[in-house]
């Protein structure tokens, strides 16, 4: 059984949107802080990984949301690097509220990238060993991201505060561009129940991205939104977001 | 002597820019969290103020920066509502590092606004009393904001995640629009030493703002930038930022 690691986090007003609940970009920032802290605690921090000429890159998230925590709440974020195969490492995250109820459960896929040529590396045992993840043969495909149909488009210029090191956009930013297009009326009457997101290509400082989306009903759900982030017609990220009507 | 109130804050990577230091918008978010916490501790939180039909609004900041804290540091934020007159309340903030060195000192001006008609109210003794601020006659004018000369302009659309309650843009966002225009090369080779910012008019969801700026040398300083945020030719905020060359 792979090691688990937990951190306490206070949800502050500036991490919440006009609904008073945690924003999706900040949710991703908070969980990644916890996995970084686990890596540091196991002496496998980013400097150690960089000593192999490598860096961790997240390729996809499957985010199941029971409810988004509100401003003023204290949550516990738990992470576990459950399993890995030749190229992919699978890590789970849980967000629990003070009563111990699960608010969010996230499955994620990490790969090691060569810092020089930005290509995927095979997993290195020395980097992964302390997490005590299970070695597996199978590659988890995850639920398929639904295509955008007759999409509308809105452009966004990559800003200075959108990038982290290396002039690349932080993964969490894509969900800002993807949800923003849905507008105030939609975003104050709906809440995300599940988010499938896949990162295909890095976006750089100064680029103009097209945030393309379509919206439909599906099964009993009031709304499913399909998203692509493109730069010059190249897909950089794709997502499907399943929405519920917000309870007031 | 007015009461002081302090909070500890961990500076996390996602609160920092590509330089690895705290962003100006997050600096403002963190200090306001501390003044809100003081108000809550004194039973003068936003609900109490709202019971008078009022809300606090910040009209200006004078931010003196010795150094911006880095990712991984733990800082102490201290605040003190020093004095007030008929309409204006003056509040100071300090950010100290773990060694007790002052990183940032901020003077701010708060006013009470009528929530219904969005007009300024006179200060109500019952709201202000527990802070033990000194009652003064004088109105602090603060250092004058320098005009933009032959300014260039870049437009920004107000996004869903830019607004807090009431569909208004959070004050901290203006510094994102103001600094972003200066570009990657400038922002990775310069660091702000002093920021004077004045908020004149609220910006709302969906509006397009023009971020107008000019850049000059002044005295021994390598760069002084002058800024305006306008919506349809109305000035919503103005700032002067004094920059130093960044030490690598």
UniProtKB/TrEMBL annotation, chains A, B:
The protein's name in its UniProt record: Acyl-[acyl-carrier-protein] thioesterase
Keywords: Fatty acid biosynthesis, Fatty acid metabolism, Hydrolase, Lipid biosynthesis, Lipid metabolism, Transit peptide
Family (UniProt): Belongs to the acyl-ACP thioesterase family.
Pfam family, one: Acyl-ACP_TE
CDD domains reported for this sequence: 4HBT
Record's keyword annotation contains Zinc: no
Residue span, Acyl-ACP thioesterase N-terminal hotdog domain: 3-131
Residues covered by the Acyl-ACP thioesterase-like C-terminal domain: 147-244
Keyword flag Lipid metabolism: yes
InterPro entries recorded: Acyl-ACP_TE_C (IPR049427), Acyl-ACP_thioesterase_NHD (IPR002864), FATA/B (IPR045023), HotDog_dom_sf (IPR029069)
Single GO term (MF): acyl carrier activity
